[in-house]
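From the pipeline queue, job 12 of 40. The input is one protein chain; the requested action is below.

Action: predict structure.
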Amino acid sequence: MELTNYNFDFAIYVKVFNSITNVARLSKSDFAMVFTTGISPYISEEESGPTEKFVHNYGARVHHMAFQTDRIEDTYSALKEDGIDFLIESWWAPPTKG
């Protein structure tokens, strides 16, 4: 974070998922970047938790971004129009054209 203008906001240790989630923001009113890491390394699909599986499958990266919105459908559509890709589609996402 020293290379950006982001500031550490808070962290949560979730023992049952073997993970630490760190939240960074530019300011309290900006969206949050969420970085989640596993405490233990990936072992296998059967033994590892969701955090280790995410890192194993997608690499070390931002886990998700959080937005405060009153109209999630509009926010989702606007992000898609701006060229943002999602790893999965939401259950309420409009069907893809094509």
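Job complete. Residues 72-81 form the longest helix (10 residues).
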